[in-house]
Automatic annotation (TrEMBL):
Keywords: Signal. This is DUF4360 domain-containing protein. InterPro entries: DUF4360. Pfam families: DUF4360. Residues 1-19 form the signal peptide. It comes from Microthyrium microscopicum. The keyword Signal applies.
Length: 202
């Protein structure tokens, strides 16, 4: 199933990168745009089927990560310093529309002794397409509390889904990284991310 979707996305992407769509911006998802399959997710920071969830329609996706964290410090293994959780959204839409990520807001908490840093981050791309967008924030110890950040891609950085309709697989990967330092205790979480989508006609 996944391989079929991937093939479809790869072939429509290849066909359409050379086309120059005449575009006009619209705010809302078009009629007929829908989540074609329930989202899937995987990664060391998802920790099981029941530990990640999403809400929202095809304009805004809220991803919740109850166990996504990274830790570092005395006695903590290097593999605990970074965990990730990646969602794949199968979004179907009519052939005269395309969409892109317009902003990502993400939030969590960190506890860092002096000298420690942490980097909550993420990236998004369409399966089969190479351009991706990335976001990150660096937190510097001493730090103890919540954080929230918003990433808004510039027009040049914005990556649009292929025209031509069908399915697109939107991948969103979130990463909690406590920058490795065996002497300094630190931890960071990503508790949620809200991915806003914008739509336009091809
Ligand atoms: C996201 O997490 C932050 C901090 O943990 C919290 O304040 C906020 O309400 C959460 N937002 C959503 C949409 O769950």
């Amino acid at each position: 199933m996944a391989a079929q979707f991937l093939f479809k996305v790869v072939s429509s992407y290849a066909l359409l990168v050379s086309a120059t769509p005449i575009t006009s911006s619209i705010a809302a998802a078009p009629p007929g745009a829908s989540m074609a399959q329930p989202p899937i997710f995987a990664g060391s920071g998802c920790a099981g089927d029941t530990d990640a969830s999403w809400s929202g329609g095809v304009d805004s996706l809220t991803l919740v990560y109850p166990v996504l964290s990274g830790k570092t410090g005395p006695g903590i293994s290097i593999s605990d310093s970074r965990h990730n959780c990646q969602f794949v959204f199968d979004i179907a839409y009519p052939d005269n529309y395309q969409y892109s990520v317009s902003s990502v807001s993400y939030a969590g908490a960190a506890s860092l002794d002096a000298g420690g840093t942490a980097t909550p981050s993420g990236l998004s791309y369409f399966s089969g397409g190479t351009p991706q967008i990335t976001w990150s924030t660096t937190l510097t110890g001493p730090y103890n509390g919540g954080y929230s950040a918003v990433y808004t891609p510039s027009a040049a950085d914005t990556v649009w889904s292929p025209c031509g309709g069908g399915d697109s697989l939107l991948d969103v990967n979130s990463v909690a990284l406590a920058n490795r330092n065996a002497q300094v205790a630190g931890s960071v979480t990503v508790s949620n991310a809200t991915v806003s989508l914008q739509w336009r006609t091809c």
